[in-house]
Amino acid sequence: MEVFSDVVCPFCGCLCDDLEITVENNKIIKTKNSCAISLSKFMHHEDNRLNYPTVDGRRTDLVEAINESAKILASAKRPLIYGLSSTECEAINRSIELAELIGGVIDSTASVCHGPTIITEQSIGLIKSTLGEIKNRADLIIFWGSNPTESHLRHLTRYSMFPTGLFTPEGRKNRFIVAVDVRKTKLSRIVDLFLEIEPNKDFELISALRAIVRGVKIEAEQVSGIPINILKELAERMKKARFGVVFYGLGLTQSEMGDMNVNAAVGLVSDLNHHTKFVILPMRGHFNVAGANTVSSWLSGYPFAIDYSRGYSRYNPGEFTAVDLLERKEADAALIIASDPVAHFPASAVEHLTKIPLITIDQKVNMTTLLSRIVIPAATVGIEADGTAYRMDGIPIRLKKIIEPSEGILPDSEILKMMIDKIRVLKGGY
Ligand code: SF4
């Protein structure tokens, strides 16, 4: 029996790094410090596994699956590579290399979640801090369109609402917590102030708060369903906070005018910095979606939605994003890495995916593997393979390998390297 300490959880953007995992005979038998999701990830990582590669539904070996994939990708005119948010940075690195080699389009799941955040970050920047600073300093925390009690289970206890810190020695008692959402949630029941706003009215509410913070008189009695006196009290509290933070989720980025909402929220935080210290952080979902954008930015200059068809990187969300490419029926082959677009994309995009050669590298059976021409099983990073991932605040953290994968099952990065080597041969050593 072996006990691994300081294990990092490879599930959500919190990347909790204090897990203790007990292993016996290469099996995980116990976890400590896990939340319910993490417990399930570690204890059930063998459920629904892909155990061998398939081509056209026929069992095959890795070499044939790689060779067939390489032939499809090397001969495609407009290949798409998509996914990347639940794999290690080393695999993301290889994916960009592959996209450049085949002149393809590469996009990550960020394009259907925090794309507006990334676009805002590029255009006006984000005023950010680490989760450690927030734990130690924040005395006013606002969750906007985000419900960590369902999505990031240990966020409240490790980083935001409850932990004690250097300047927050009494933990929860030192903090005023606000939730803004369109409906009551588990979070709304435990915060100090809950603003139940009308759907798709975030921009108006943020703009009203900005106006009040700037000293503008508002004549309306309510904005987005919230009485103006409550907004005035909140604005005053924000200005007087010692260290404030806005954590926002898909409720802000994926409601109407998502990019304008994020832009306005960053503007509000910027205005508040004339009075006090205030930061804003996206609640990134998948454990390495931040890494997908970061690694891609180093290598191509752009965070997602990148086209290499001209031999150099071009960036255009809305044109080179996976859903748009598929809806225009442009892609003639697709490689999906650690993602399940068939379960999440609009029907029109999925319909085109079913009509082109589809290759999927994943650990488990999902809707996309069921429709794929070629399926290649992969090792689970953070359990069966090591690698690097970026936490939601941009801190890189090393994931540990704690057990051996089944024989012949390789990490995504190694599978991609084999594919790249084969394509180079097919292209005459290019
Ligand atoms: S909060 Fe997220 S990273 Fe932390 S243990 Fe739970 S699933 Fe894992």
Task: Describe the structure concisely for a colleague.
The chain is of the alpha/beta class and 430 residues long. The chain has helices at 36-43, 62-75, 89-102, 115-123, 131-137, 148-151, 155-158, 202-213, 228-240, 250-253, 258-272, 289-300, 322-327, 341-344, 347-353, 367-370, 412-426; strands spanning 2-7, 19-24, 27-32, 54-55, 58-59, 79-83, 105-108, 140-144, 176-181, 193-196, 222-223, 226-227, 243-248, 277-282, 306-307, 314-315, 333-337, 358-362, 374-377, 387-390, 396-399. The protein has a nine-stranded mixed beta sheet with strand order 5-4-19-18-17-6-7-15-16, with helices on one face. Strands 10-9-8-13-14 form a five-stranded parallel beta sheet. Strands 1-2-3 form a three-stranded antiparallel beta sheet.
Q: Could you characterize what this model shows?
A:
The protein is α/β, with parallel strands linked by helices and 430 residues long. The chain folds into 2 domains: 50-112 and 287-426, Rossmann fold (3-Layer(aba) Sandwich); 115-282, Dimethylsulfoxide Reductase, domain 2, CATH 3.40.228.10. Helix content is 35%, strand content 20%. The chain has 17 helices and 21 strands. The protein has helices at residues 36-43, 62-75, 89-102, 115-123, 131-137, 148-151, 155-158, 202-213, 228-240, 250-253, 258-272, 289-300, 322-327, 341-344, 347-353, 367-370, 412-426; strands spanning 2-7, 19-24, 27-32, 54-55, 58-59, 79-83, 105-108, 140-144, 176-181, 193-196, 222-223, 226-227, 243-248, 277-282, 306-307, 314-315, 333-337, 358-362, 374-377, 387-390, 396-399. A 9-stranded mixed beta sheet has the order 5-4-19-18-17-6-7-15-16, covered by helices on one side. A 5-stranded parallel beta sheet has the order 10-9-8-13-14. Strands 1-2-3 form a 3-stranded antiparallel beta sheet. Helix 3 (89-102) links the parallel strand 6 (79-83) and strand 7. Helix 2 packs across helix 17 and helix 4 (115-123) crosses helix 11 (258-272). It is globular. The chain binds iron/sulfur cluster (SF4). Iron/sulfur cluster (SF4) binds next to helix 1.
